[in-house]
UniProtKB/TrEMBL annotation:
Residues 6-195 form the AB hydrolase-1 domain. InterPro entries: AB_hydrolase_1 (IPR000073), AB_hydrolase_fold (IPR029058). It comes from the Bacteria. This is AB hydrolase-1 domain-containing protein. Signal peptide: none annotated.
Length: 229
C-alpha cells in the first residue's frame, strides 16, 4: 500500500487556499484540496446541504482516481468529511476533524452575517481570529474568499451554525482523529482519538501548519501500518 492521498476540506467562508501551507509541507505525499460548493472557485454553485457537498467531494475523489485516501476536514469541512465517511467509500482509511467548531456562539454568527461582502468587516474578523502579526498574504486570501463566497451559502451555513450539529445517520466505523484546542466542543464519537494543538485558533492550517502536518502524517502512517498488518 502506498501513502494515502490527503483530501483536505476547508472551513466556512474560506477556500482550498487555507490548506496551502499544509499541502506544501506534505512534500511528496499526494493531496487533493477542492473548493466546497458555494465557496472559492465553486461559489456559483450556491447553497448546498452537507449531504450534497459530500456527494460532490466523492465525485472529485473518484475523478482524480485516488485509490487509498484519508479525509481531513476543518469546521464545515469536518461535517462534510464525517458525512462522506459514514458512506464508507472504497479506499477510505480514516477521517481527521480539525477544530470541528461543533457550534458557533451567537456573537460570532451575528458578526459574520454582516461581514459578507464587507472587506473591512472581514479584515477585522480574521485579524482577531489570527491574532497578532498575521501573515498578510493569508489574511488577504481570507478576505478575498469571504468576498467571493455565495451569499446564499454563507447565510445557509450561519443558520446551521446556530443549531446543534447533526451527526450522520450511519455511525462512522473508521478511525477518527480530532485535532482541536482544549476549550472547543467536539463531537461525541466513541472511536475518536483526540489531540490538542496550540495555538488555540480555529485556523490551525494557517497558524500551525507544521505541527498539524506532522500530527496528520503520524496518524496516517499508523493507519497504513494497521492496514498492512
Amino acid at each position: 500500500m502506498v501513502e494515502p492521498t490527503f483530501v483536505l476540506l476547508h472551513g466556512f467562508g474560506t477556500s482550498s487556499r487555507e490548506w496551502v501551507h499544509v499541502a506544501e509541507q506534505l512534500a511528496g505525499v499526494r493531496s487533493l484540496h477542492p473548493d466546497l460548493p458555494g465557496f472559492g472557485t465553486c461559489a456559483a454553485q450556491g447553497a448546498c446541504s452537507v449531504s450534497e457537498m459530500a456527494e460532490v467531494i466523492a465525485g472529485a475523489i473518484g475523478h482524480a482516481g485516488h485509490r487509498d485516501f484519508v479525509l481531513v476536514g476543518r469546521e464545515l469541512g469536518a461535517l462534510v468529511a464525517l458525512e462522506l465517511a459514514a458512506r464508507q467509500p472504497p479506499g477510505l482509511l480514516g477521517v481527521a476533524l480539525v477544530h470541528p467548531a461543533w457550534r458557533a456562539d451567537p456573537e460570532t454568527v451575528a458578526r459574520l452575517r454582516t461581514a459578507h461582502g464587507n472587506p473591512d468587516a472581514l479584515r477585522a474578523h480574521y485579524a482577531a481570529v489570527l491574532g497578532s502579526a498575521p501573515d498578510e498574504r493569508d489574511l488577504e486570501n481570507l478576505i478575498l474568499d469571504g468576498l467571493r463566497a455565495s451569499k446564499e451559502a454563507w447565510n445557509a451555513w450561519l443558520d446551521q451554525a446556530e443549531e446543534p450539529p447533526r451527526l450522520p445517520d450511519v455511525p462512522v466505523s473508521l478511525p477518527v482523529l480530532i485535532v482541536s484546542d482544549n476549550d472547543s466542543p467536539v463531537p461525541s464519537l466513541p472511536q475518536a482519538s483526540i489531540q490538542t494543538l496550540a495555538p488555540e485558533s480555529p485556523l490551525l492550517p494557517l497558524q500551525a501548519p507544521g505541527p498539524l502536518t506532522r500530527q496528520l502524517l503520524h496518524w496516517s502512517n499508523n493507519l497504513v501500518k494497521e492496514a498492512r498488518a
